[in-house]
Specification:
114 residues; mainly beta; 7-stranded mixed beta sheet; 4-stranded antiparallel beta sheet; 0% helix; globular
């Protein structure tokens, strides 16, 4: 299955964005999906993930500000980001655990200005 991420952009601090990641084929509740991000010059870090309808995991730095959700009927996982901070600036990459492998989307740039 291939992933297509979208929804990134330039936003002022305190603003909001919603990222979408659409899979090219059916996804199932037991597919672990989510988002990583890679800030400039830094390592990739897990932002949020979801398995099933509501089993979620978040990085401490985004708890209370970001919400991950999925719509299996639309083969899509979302990341609603609110109260954005300049330190949220990064390329955001979606992933899906598909059998024994992990598939990645192409990434979408999020830039938060102060």
């Amino acid at each position: 299955v291939q992933l297509q991420a979208s929804g990134g952009g330039l936003v002022q601090a305190g603003g909001s964005l919603r990222l979408s990641c659409v899979a090219s084929g059916p996804i199932f509740s037991n597919n672990h999906m989510g988002w990583y991000r890679q800030p400039p010059g830094k390592q990739r870090e897990l932002v949020a993930s979801i398995i099933g309808r509501s089993a979620t995991e978040y990085a401490d730095s985004v708890k209370g500000r970001f919400t991950i959700s999925r719509d299996n009927a639309k083969n899509t996982v979302y990341l609603q980001m609110t109260t954005l901070k300049p330190e949220d600036t990064a390329v955001y990459l979606c992933f899906i655990n598909w059998g024994p492998s992990t598939n990645w989307g192409q990434g979408t740039q999020v830039t938060v200005s102060s």
